[in-house]
């Protein structure tokens, strides 16, 4: 599979989020995919800083909010991704989340924002 290169030229482990919005919210039925070198079924998952699944699959659907990372045998530990249950509550008790595309953005880009209630 695709694996980006760090500035030093070394392969890294990436944690991909689908749908690709940030912040990621649990009610979107978020899928996390760990991309890196090594056997796919040798992925170790961490949730909230604790080892959570060892020798697990490289992809799963999130059922609990939290902060996730994955580790692959060759490329190592991924950056963390937070999956939120509630981003904020306004004065009327509505749960509001303002999402942006989970990709690099440059000044001048056209951006679609999502306000979720």
Automatic annotation (TrEMBL):
Highest taxon of the lineage: Eukaryota
Domain Ig-like: from-to ranges: 7-70
Keywords assigned: Disulfide bond, Signal
GO molecular function annotation: transmembrane signaling receptor activity
GO cellular component: external side of plasma membrane
GO biological processes: cell surface receptor signaling pathway; immune response
SUPFAM superfamilies reported in the protein's UniProt record: Immunoglobulin
Protein name (database record): FCGR3 protein
Origin species: Menura novaehollandiae (superb lyrebird)
Gene assigned in the entry: Fcgr3_13
